[in-house]
Amino acid sequence: MIDRSIISAQNDALHDDLARDYTALGDKLSRRGVDIDAIKDRARRFSVAVPSWGTGTGGTRFARFPGNGEPATIFDKLDDCGVIHGLTRATPRVSLHIPWDKADPSDLRAKAEEHGLGFDAMNSNTFQDQPGQVHSYKFGSLSHTAPATRAQAIEHNLECLEIGQKIGSKALTVWIGDGANFPGQSHMGRQYERYLSSMKEIYAGLPDDWRLFSEHKIYEPAFYSTVVQDWGTSLMTAQELGPKAMCLVDLGHHAPNVNIEMIVSRLIHAGKLGGFHFNDSKYGDDDLDSGTIEPYRLFLIWNELVDAEDTPGLDLAHMIDQSHNVTDPIESLMVSAMEIQRASVQAALVDRAALAGYQDENDALMASATLRAAFRTDVEPILAMARLEAGGAVDPVATYRASGYRAKVAESRPKVSGAGGGIV
Ligand SMILES: [Mn+2]
């Protein structure tokens, strides 16, 4: 996809400076009792899945402004995912969305293998109507008042399991837009009961080695009440369904200023944290690029994850879920993957023994300073060295731009119309 010689030329030009920066940081960290190579190995082990839908321009309900050379098919999307992983070496899996990415499973597998990619969680879609669909989801899907509509939505999720098994996926993420726009429109208790009974049918179809992720979202498209509105409902659902059901935390799906790292801690305690959809937000569910608004919050979430990483049974599915509107999606996804990786590495630098001591002594100032000392460490040389050693690019965005990839694929990919709403 991107010529090795371009990556090598770019890396060669940056190598000496990187080596000096890495040595200097290594000296600094060793004074803190930290082995930089161990941290670099951790950076190399890090991975986050790319959402297939993130490779195109998202758009809002007002408009969508597509860029040149956007992917037209799932195979184009997998090519773009191959570029992202090839340069960052941090995104070895792709999360598919059905029916948007429906294709022959053996063709999907072949294309993924071509790029050294695998498949992450499957995502079902009962929040919009597809052409030819018999029952509309206008008034809900898994919680709809009509049994036939619920059956159709359940059937769709079972189909996602079937497709997923053929491509090596091991999880299904269910997010529904069901809810109400008016007080009194829906009986909140009965609506949840219907949702739960539909989820039980999906859970019953789950293969033994699969997990079912329940994703909550405070509002939109239902602006008055949403069926799975917060982690409380999500946890209640996962506990009712059984051991293979887990909660998925999308960072954008909370009210402003909610303490997400505390939710993470509680879900770990309950043994029900399944994974993340990473993004960032300023006001609501903005789907902004990870790490662009509140990098400290991202760090604090990773601080909880690193703290709990030896918890038996903790196996997290990390995914990006963003909407790219003004950037080249490949660049946004690369930068986001690296920002999530950065937070995970910074969190690994927290002096946990010192922190525990300060906590026991109720030394709030020094406890907080211990976290900030890790957060303020510029770990870029560690990330860049990890990428270099794994065959990626020291500077993925610069290398991507030098490759001219987007202009090249634009020659063969059809122009996308800007009309109509985007993915909202
Ligand atoms: Mn999400």
From TrEMBL:
Domain Xylose isomerase-like TIM barrel: 92-286
Pfam families to which the protein is assigned, alphabetical: AP_endonuc_2
Keyword Ribosomal protein: no
GO terms assigned for molecular function: isomerase activity; metal ion binding
Superkingdom of this protein's organism: Bacteria
InterPro entries tied to this protein: L-rhamnose_isomerase, L_rhamnose_iso, Xyl_isomerase-like_sf, Xyl_isomerase-like_TIM-brl
UniProtKB keywords: Isomerase, Manganese, Metal-binding
PANTHER family named among the record's database cross-references: L-RHAMNOSE ISOMERASE
Name of the protein in question: L-rhamnose isomerase / sugar isomerase
Lineage, opening ranks: Bacteria, Pseudomonadati, Pseudomonadota, Alphaproteobacteria, Rhodobacterales
